[in-house]
Amino acid sequence: MKKFHSIAAVLLSLLLSEIVFAEPAMSRLSQHGRWLTDQQGRVVMLRGGNLPLPSYTSKKSAYSANTPQLLADNGFNAVRLVIFFSELMPEPGHINADYLKEIDNAVAAYRNAGIYVLIDFHQDEYSAAIGVRGFPAWAVFTDGHEPKRLRFPAGYFSDPAIHAAFDNFWKNREVPNTGRGVQDFYSDGLAAVAKHFRDNPAVFGIDVMNEPFTGSRCNQPDPRSADCPELERDALAPFYEKAGRAIAAVAPAIIVFVEPFMLQGSMGVPINTPPPGAPAQRGLSFHQYGTLAEIRQRGNDYAMASAQRTQSAILNTEWGFTNDPIEWRKQAQELDDLLIPWLAWARGAFAPLVDPQLPAAGNENREAVLRELARPYPRATAGTPQRLTFEPETGALMFTYTSAAVQDYPRRVALTEIVLPKANFPQGYSVTIDSGKATIISKPDARVLIVRAQPDAGEITIRAQRKGKLADLPAPTASEDPYAFLQQPSATKSKSDVLSSNSMLGDLLGNPAARAILDREVPELVNSPQVGMGSQMSLRALQAYVPQMLNDEKLNRIDRALSTIPKGTDH
Hints:
It is a single chain. By secondary structure, this protein is of the alpha/beta class. The chain folds into 3 domains: 24-374, Glycosidases (TIM Barrel, Alpha-Beta Barrel), CATH 3.20.20; 376-468, Sandwich (Immunoglobulin-like), CATH 2.60.40.1180; 500-562, no CATH class. 34% of the residues lie in helices and 18% in strands. It contains 20 helices and 21 strands. Strands 12-11-10-9-6-5-4-13 form an 8-stranded parallel beta sheet. The protein has a 5-stranded antiparallel beta sheet with strand order 3-14-17-20-19, covered by helices on one side. The protein has a 4-stranded antiparallel beta sheet with strand order 15-16-21-18. A hairpin with a 4-residue loop joins β15 (384-391) and β16 (396-402).
């Protein structure tokens, strides 16, 4: 009898340990091939958004102390935490301890909520000294060019000061009176952050540089001139080698994520991003702003091929940037089709999507957007994911995986966890499994569906179906200034009552009435390869790049036609 009790105790202990692992405790993530895995040997899928430090958004109330927990409550499990080298190293070689502490506080809040953190060294048009933000003034070398201060992102394409700054960064231009190059100091900053968080399992990776830009070459928003593999070899490769070694030397467990050049995702051109040379833990962070579905498909396929070729964990770290729920839905399914984890970039700040107490500030359709983003997904798979589909209208989820571990990585638990967020399953769900060697062990209608499968279960398909109907959503409204989050405009700016040539091309193409006007007036633009930048450039801003298609007379005629579209039909 005593032996029986002993065996029973062991079995109970094993069962309890598996259930504990089903909770969102911080398990160090690692990289195996194209997948992220946890310490239990399961494939981890990340879902979340981009959020800056609280101090950066405090004036606009785009973050609150409740944000981390509200993200978790809505089913998200990761954020890309945006930081700036200008704040981290305000003087050459000097790490700002206060800023590092602020990052530490933010990470602690996310960790307490069970949210993973990718720390992103962010830049837009290199620096506030010449563009939007990123590098400190001491790291800016313009070769005498004065900045033009064009509306983002036009500076990338038309400002010699920004071109020169990137050229000098890729050359590792020496910082005066230091004997060291700007890349050397940048790598010191990466290492300082990596060292600080090397023992924190919440920080799974560092994104080395947001949207690196080519500089004076290959800099036009046209796929015919944006495909420059020689620059990937000559500029990105040595930089990523240096950055990767700096991080791996102090924090070998942190995954080093590198990005393609800024135009590659939006233009749908081949991606041959070189991986960091030294780290065993490597990832590919890519962005997807292709305006048309065929451009996005090429971009996603190229990113996947690059990740598989370099054996890097793939992670989409920016996509969306729209107030159109249908666009969010289409693009989310495109990523699901390839089983790509993602961190979305909202039209305004991300936090107000989950917190109705915060001002919308560019997310006027936030209820509808949240419903599209809070999709069900397998946050931890005890095996290898195969297929994932979700039909938002009917509430039908299908997830297929095999019980075989990825790359023979040892698996310590057999529990698969599927998140079914309240936004899409407010009254719960019914569920079926087509395998006799897999069983559900979570409570009915639990927000996390937990399935235990035997090691030899083979292929397992789980189907969940929403109970009841979703509540009606508020009618869509026009957006605030589309760059509200990026450029922090005055709160007095009002909504645009009508679409115009100052609207972003992506918005116009997504509106059937506006699309019909463009089809009539500028069919050559609608079918142009340069339409790829439409998600972040206005029709009028594109005039400089396609003057033969868009003269002032034609833009004025388009404006008159767009002004007749009734308000409220912009999605």
